[in-house]
Amino acid sequence: MSKFTDYQFKPFLREAIGRLGFEQPTPIQKEMIPLILKGANAIGQAHTGTGKSHSFLIPILQRLDETKDELQAVITAPTRELAMQLYEELNKMIENTMIRSSILIGGTDKQRSIDKLKSNPHIVVGTPGRIRDLAENGALAIHTASILVIDEADLAFDMGFIEDIDQFASKMPTNLEMYVFSATIPEKLKPFLSKYMDSPVHVQIGNKKPLTEGMQYSLVPVRSMDRKKKLLHVLHAINPYLAIVFTNTKQNADEIANYLANHGIKAGRIHGDLSPRERTRMMKQIRDLEYQYIVATDLAARGIDIPGVSHVINYELPDDLEFFIHRVGRTARAGLEGIAITMYEPSEDDKIVQIEKMGIPFIHEDVKNGEWIEVKERNARKKRVKEVDELDRKAVSYVRKPDKVKPGYKKKMTKEIEKFKKRERRLKRKNGK
């Protein structure tokens, strides 16, 4: 199917898809929607920003039976923010229908969740721990739901939620359909998948996230300057709609946010030490555009969708370089342009080389007097030394020592070598190399 209008969706779904402005399915949607419509177990492997949420929401809603007064589908997300985002997208699609939905996440009033479940929702979205809790105390009639979606499965595994999912999945029907979505499929996740999925269809959209159109990757040397001071120079040289500064630890995130505040830059912060109430308030402030800058750990790269990010700044390179892709994927979304700025020191050159091998085309820049300037590539000197060495070897092999030497032959040979090298350089310039 090349267009959404080619599918025989229910009228409310066709209206919702039109309202959302969707015309053509993304690659993951094109592959997954038909599989879920026919009830085939499947694994969808794709990165954030590829449209995977709607690749399961649309076909599940097509299959829900509003006339049945029972739970039919469960969708899990590893963080409260992701669950809330999915729930919001779900509710946009079921306006003016009789479909009942519930959100089940930690950090909220448990009794209120229990009360809402008395109306028997057709579909629930939630975090694994809260779903398990409500299923075990009998508030959630999970035994009637024949569809289970696990979103961001690798993150769920990293956060230790697979055991929770296993506990409530075992109470679901024997003919359970499972749909797993993940950027990567860790080896340790496979035993869980094989327990519930018999020969699933594995849909993989690109081995690596494709380079985003309209994306610029700037590499900025820290050199001898204090790293925080360099960050300040970078921030003063950009005028972002919204910028995320990524750090590797919660302590660094707080330290940077405080440092920026002391220098007149108000910055929000997102990391694992914020309470549920603080995180909810922070996300509201961010969406209300109270901040132009956010300092965050990698939780924000995977667990939160922040709209309107124009710049991503890697204050430090992530320990797991896969997170570099997740970080820069926060910008240049929905057809917009984005800039990813990465600060680095010479000691991090090996990491930069590995990132370049992932397909990232860095441009080398620096900030001088508040202006962006192009600088020599970090390995320009190495390349120059290598080129000179190669030219010297070539010249020496070309200008051979004469069989019979005469006085002054060394001087003559040196002159011939320099002449050869000059000719080679001239040819190289002429050919534009």
From TrEMBL:
<dbReference type="GO" id="GO:0005829">
    <property type="term" value="C:cytosol"/>
</dbReference>
<dbReference type="Pfam" id="PF00270">
    <property type="entry name" value="DEAD"/>
</dbReference>
<dbReference type="InterPro" id="IPR011545">
    <property type="entry name" value="DEAD/DEAH_box_helicase_dom"/>
</dbReference>
<dbReference type="InterPro" id="IPR014014">
    <property type="entry name" value="RNA_helicase_DEAD_Q_motif"/>
</dbReference>
<dbReference type="GO" id="GO:0005524">
    <property type="term" value="F:ATP binding"/>
</dbReference>
<feature type="domain" description="DEAD-box RNA helicase Q">
    <location>
        <begin position="2"/>
        <end position="30"/>
    </location>
</feature>
<dbReference type="InterPro" id="IPR001650">
    <property type="entry name" value="Helicase_C-like"/>
</dbReference>
<dbReference type="InterPro" id="IPR044742">
    <property type="entry name" value="DEAD/DEAH_RhlB"/>
</dbReference>
<keyword id="KW-0347">Helicase</keyword>
<keyword id="KW-0694">RNA-binding</keyword>
<dbReference type="GO" id="GO:0016887">
    <property type="term" value="F:ATP hydrolysis activity"/>
</dbReference>
<keyword id="KW-0067">ATP-binding</keyword>
<dbReference type="GO" id="GO:0003724">
    <property type="term" value="F:RNA helicase activity"/>
</dbReference>
<dbReference type="InterPro" id="IPR030881">
    <property type="entry name" value="CshB"/>
</dbReference>
<dbReference type="InterPro" id="IPR014001">
    <property type="entry name" value="Helicase_ATP-bd"/>
</dbReference>
<dbReference type="GO" id="GO:0009409">
    <property type="term" value="P:response to cold"/>
</dbReference>
<keyword id="KW-0547">Nucleotide-binding</keyword>
<keyword id="KW-0346">Stress response</keyword>
<feature type="domain" description="Helicase ATP-binding">
    <location>
        <begin position="33"/>
        <end position="203"/>
    </location>
</feature>
<dbReference type="Pfam" id="PF00271">
    <property type="entry name" value="Helicase_C"/>
</dbReference>
<feature type="domain" description="Helicase C-terminal">
    <location>
        <begin position="230"/>
        <end position="381"/>
    </location>
</feature>
<dbReference type="GO" id="GO:0033592">
    <property type="term" value="F:RNA strand annealing activity"/>
</dbReference>
<dbReference type="InterPro" id="IPR027417">
    <property type="entry name" value="P-loop_NTPase"/>
</dbReference>
<comment type="similarity">
    <text>Belongs to the DEAD box helicase family. CshB subfamily.</text>
</comment>
<dbReference type="InterPro" id="IPR050547">
    <property type="entry name" value="DEAD_box_RNA_helicases"/>
</dbReference>
<dbReference type="GO" id="GO:0006401">
    <property type="term" value="P:RNA catabolic process"/>
</dbReference>
<keyword id="KW-0378">Hydrolase</keyword>
<dbReference type="GO" id="GO:0005840">
    <property type="term" value="C:ribosome"/>
</dbReference>
<protein>
    <recommendedName>
        <fullName>DEAD-box ATP-dependent RNA helicase CshB</fullName>
        <ecNumber>3.6.4.13</ecNumber>
    </recommendedName>
</protein>
<keyword id="KW-0963">Cytoplasm</keyword>
<feature type="short sequence motif" description="Q motif">
    <location>
        <begin position="2"/>
        <end position="30"/>
    </location>
</feature>
<comment type="function">
    <text>Probable DEAD-box RNA helicase. May work in conjunction with the cold shock proteins to ensure proper initiation of transcription at low and optimal temperatures.</text>
</comment>
